[in-house]
Design goal:
The protein is α/β, with parallel strands linked by helices. Helix content is about 30%, strand content about 30%.
Length: about 260
């Protein structure tokens, strides 16, 4: 499945402007044969929006979700987008997957919040594994810091995730996560990982870009640079099946030896 990674910080604070960026990227991605477009973390509103988080947050079935669904239908591809989700009295840092038919396929709330900004403005999600089926692949959802916890990704591997989508706001000086950690996560869990970052200065942060789609062999199929970009790569079910057949990591596990350690 051809997957497009939109490396962009859009226009922080303007949902309308970011929907326009998304629409233009979806048109380009579809023209290149993509069946899925993935945006960075909090793409819909911007990440460094401070106390505007409650004002800009929307429910999973709100007006912005309808607008993204319209983009998906018009361009004939699925869209996974990061946004602040309002649910009753809580606001979550979320990613929603919309199908090419406009259906809401899955919604995930970030479970590992990073830094004071996120802990001050968001509630932690409590569901580790959220999945949906798309074009013969089982898609998993995760956000940024979540992927840095090996137990988190292993839970997806054991649940059968084929392609893990990770909208990200990865900042300086942690670029080694994009360069090294993400390919290792893909290899040790025998899956594809699409890690899609923001880029450039935003508020107090400097995002490092380097968005990538890593394969189950630990090799990046594509990697963006440090500027705005739209890069594409394929998640190949046949290659994934062959890689899993050749690599016994999951079947060779001995959880009886170390399972209790994850409860510490």
């Amino acid at each position: 499945m051809r997957t497009a990674l939109l490396q962009s910080s859009g226009r922080p604070g303007s949902v309308a402007a970011n929907l326009k960026v998304l629409d233009e990227a979806a048109e380009r991605a579809a023209a290149a044969g993509a069946r899925l477009l993935v945006t960075p973390e909090m793409f819909l509103t911007g990440y460094a929006i401070g106390d505007d988080v409650p004002r800009l947050a929307e429910p999973a079935d709100g007006d912005a979700a309808d607008a993204v669904a319209d983009i998906a239908v018009r361009h004939g591809l699925a869209v996974a987008y990061g946004y602040p989700e309002r649910a009753d009295a809580d606001v979550f840092n979320s990613v929603q997957l919309i199908g090419a038919d406009g259906a809401r396929l899955a919604n995930y709330r970030k479970s590992h919040l990073f830094g004071c900004f996120e802990r001050d403005h968001f509630t932690s999600g409590e569901q580790a594994v959220v999945q949906a089926d798309l074009d013969g692949l089982r898609i998993g959802l995760m956000i940024c810091y979540d992927v840095e916890f090996p137990e988190n990704v292993r839970a997806h591997a054991l649940a059968g995730t084929d392609l893990l989508l990770v909208p990200t706001a990865q900042m300086h000086p942690f670029q080694f996560v994009a360069e090294s950690v993400v390919p290792v996560r893909a290899f040790e869990n025998q899956m594809y990982v699409a890690y899609v970052n923001r880029v450039g200065p935003e508020g107090e942060f400097e995002f490092v870009g380097l968005s990538t789609l890593a394969g189950p062999d630990g090799i990046a199929r594509t990697r963006a640079g440090r500027g705005e970009d739209l890069v594409l790569a394929d998640a190949d079910p046949a290659f994934l099946a062959a890689s899993r057949e050749a690599n016994p990591y999951l079947s060779d596990r001995r959880p009886g030896l170390y399972g209790p350690l994850v409860q510490a």
